[in-house]
Amino acid sequence: MLTYWLWIIASLVLLYFGAEGLVRGSSSLALRLGLTPLVVGLTVVAMGTSMPEVMVSVKAALAGRGDLAVGNVVGSNIFNIGVILALTALLSPMKVQFQLIKIDAPIMVAVSLGLVAILWDGAVGRLAGAALFGGLIVYIAGNIWLARRTATKQVENEYAEGVPARSGSLLLDGLFILGGLGILVIGARLLTDNSVALARSFGVSEAVIGLTIVAAGTSVPELAASIVAAMKKEPDIALGNVIGSNIFNILGILGIASMVAPITAPEIRHFDLWTMVAFAAALVPMLWTGLRVSRAEGAALFAAYCGYVYFLWPK
Question: For the whole model, what pTM was predicted?
């Protein structure tokens, strides 16, 4: 069992550095092509930090392990709010300035409800996957259009700080992108294979492992980015990371994974799906009323996540 844990830790390290390399190379290439730091931050960086989840869910779907693929997405969305956002708020209460985030939060709830409907029978086919991915394209296009119209100079500066600088050459960009993708593929395979073996050794389902260990592990890039943003007093970045990641997880990750191979996830319960919706919905009044997430609200979110994991994990 110790060997499985060591391989899982090693795979998470690979996923983290693979995502870092991919984000660095892709961001540099995007800046070289003339995109603004704000647009790069909202698209390339946001999607790049979700690449560990993409690789793990695609690998799981190809291996016929649908519970692991879906559990990774659902669990990551719960973890993002219940842990990442909660810890960020505990470190630095977040006052929202970027109005786009107010719009994205209800979209996150709507997308979560859509996933409940799609997964009601425990399966995601290629057609549903294509619809999800199409929704991602619309969301990204709308996000870019609204961001250019509503972002203040302060918000633009915050996002610019979070975007890696251009590298010295196009060749270096390509090496970072290809190297990052290669490391992500290796890390995803190690994490998937050893998570399944760990589940068997614990006598729990792959769904439970996906909803907890795998979901938490693949969310490490978002955790690191959000904590750094909190320490720099950049709440828009931290909130944007979480909300954007949750939307991308559903539309992009499940969309891509189910188009590659139809997914069946019979062990993902309706309770898990509704828990994901509940965490997303809890965030909306926080952003639309006081336009902030306080330490008390962060503590409440974290306590709720701990309660969910305690209920989920076999005693």
Answer: 0.84
